[in-house]
Amino acid sequence: MDKLAKNLDKALFLDRDGVINVDYGFVHRIEDFHFIDGVFEACRKAVAGGYRLVVVTNQSGIGRGLFTEDEYRVLTDWIETRFRAEGASLAAVYHDPTHAELGRGDYRRVSADRKPSPGMLLKARDRFGLDLARSAIVGDRETDIIAGRTAGVAHAMLVAPPDTTPATAADIVVPSLRAAVDWLVAR
Ligand SMILES: [Mg+2]
What we know:
This protein has helices at about 5, 40-50, 60-65, 70-85, 120-130, 140-150, 175-185, and strands at about 10-15, 50-60, 90-95, 135-140, 155-160, 170-175. It is of the alpha/beta class. It has a single domain (about 5-185), classed as Rossmann fold, CATH 3.40.50. The protein has a six-stranded parallel beta sheet, sandwiched between helices. It is globular and about 45 Å long. Magnesium ion (MG) binds next to loops.
């Protein structure tokens, strides 16, 4: 076996809003960032299972002028600190600030990074030497699942309210990140 290929790492890609925190729409203040129950425990379990944690989040609120890159950075620094304190450090957090129709100025463009495009996942692959065929993604929108499928991750898990049956290309529909990780590490 190729020596490099053998050393490749795997990642659990995480959407942010609706997976890590309650999605109130364009969350950009610490006081509005409410972690969903069980998130840290799930992330510790994924790390123990050999997964690097990589957040991939569309943040068109920046491009739409609803909040600034600086506000986004302050919140993200705080989120990363919380994960570190909980023993589940994030390897990286990628975001895409654009929107093809509603972005202002330079933010109004088609971006290869905005999900469902797989750009953020591919950047992480190149940076960390990830084996995407051993990696997985969790999201609460079909665009997350499509980004994962297009990048070639092994497993895609859709978070949806219990008792719903969304049409999806995901491997499994789960009620939470906790349930997604339980399913993933049991495989
Ligand atoms: Mg989401």
